């Protein structure tokens, strides 16, 4: 039956039972999530750009101090392993 054309049910011989669910449009929720994610990524990108600019403005002495204060978990773990006599060969040429 074409859209917009009036129609009627005739000769219905059995009861009709329907279960109808209403929900917001599928794409709307996904678009909101995508927009929030894009905003967070753009904000993080700006943060990284500013961090790089700040690092580039540092003097060599400030950079040395920065790296002296930076201690990563990986470094701590490697140091603990070395202290325990565990040696890892991290040669990437293998």
Assign the structural class, choosing from mainly alpha, mainly beta, alpha/beta, alpha+beta, or little secondary structure.
Answer: mainly alpha
Instruction: Please trace the helix and strand order, writing H or E for each element.
Output: HHH
Mean pLDDT: 79
**Radius of gyration from CA coordinates:** 32 Å
Helix count from the secondary structure assignment: 3
What's the N-to-C terminus distance? Answer: 71 Å
Silhouette? elongated
Number of strands: 0
Main sheet summary: none
Helix content: 55-70%
The fraction of residues in strands falls at under 5%
Provide the low-confidence segments as ranges: none
How would you characterize this protein structure?
The protein is built from 3 helices and no strands. The protein is mainly alpha-helical. It is elongated, with a radius of gyration of 32 Å. The N and C termini lie far apart (about 70 Å). The longest helix has about 30 residues, at about 25-55.
